[in-house]
Amino acid sequence: MRMRTLGGGRGRGARAWLLGSAVLLALPARALPEPGDTLPDFSARDLLGQAHASHELTGRPTLLVVITDKDAGDEMRRWFDTARGQVPPSVHRASLLTFKLPFFVGEGTVRERARARVPRQAWEDTWLDKDGDMGKALALPTSRTPYAIALDAQGRVLAAVHATVNSPEAGAVLRALGGAGNGGP
What we know:
Blueprint: H1 10-26, E1 43-46, E2 51-53, E3 62-67, H2 73-86, E4 92-98, H3 107-117, E5 126-129, H4 133-137, E6 147-151, E7 157-162, H5 170-176
Parallel strand pairs: 3-4, 4-5
Antiparallel strand pairs: 1-2, 1-5, 3-6, 6-7
């Protein structure tokens, strides 16, 4: 069976099909949970080495900032600095560092480097997922831009964005947590 294409050549049609397929494959997979979703179960250790599980993110509204790139720490900090002035103090602030690191990089090494950049008072609320399991479960690609997720007290997603805090999209997360949500510091 011969494939006929507009323009008469088989090569053009095949190239167009391949190009179209490549564009579709390049589109991002759903990388953020939708409002009403709950996060997948996961466990991690904080910067003090204590074990935690995802169910601990229930019981109070939470701003969860997830970073998937080791160089995204400054943007994560900007989210928390902005939240300090825009959301009620009752909102829990937590961060998840979810990296897929080579087997020869020890968790202790990563924890030590993170401690050098994270304020001491936030060590217990900064969880390290060295194997990237949470990032994989949510299909979060590696990015220097943080993922910010607003959770209600039952652990359901209120809003989620892949954005810096000064972007227009950030306002949805801040507003969901009772903040002004203007997106800027």
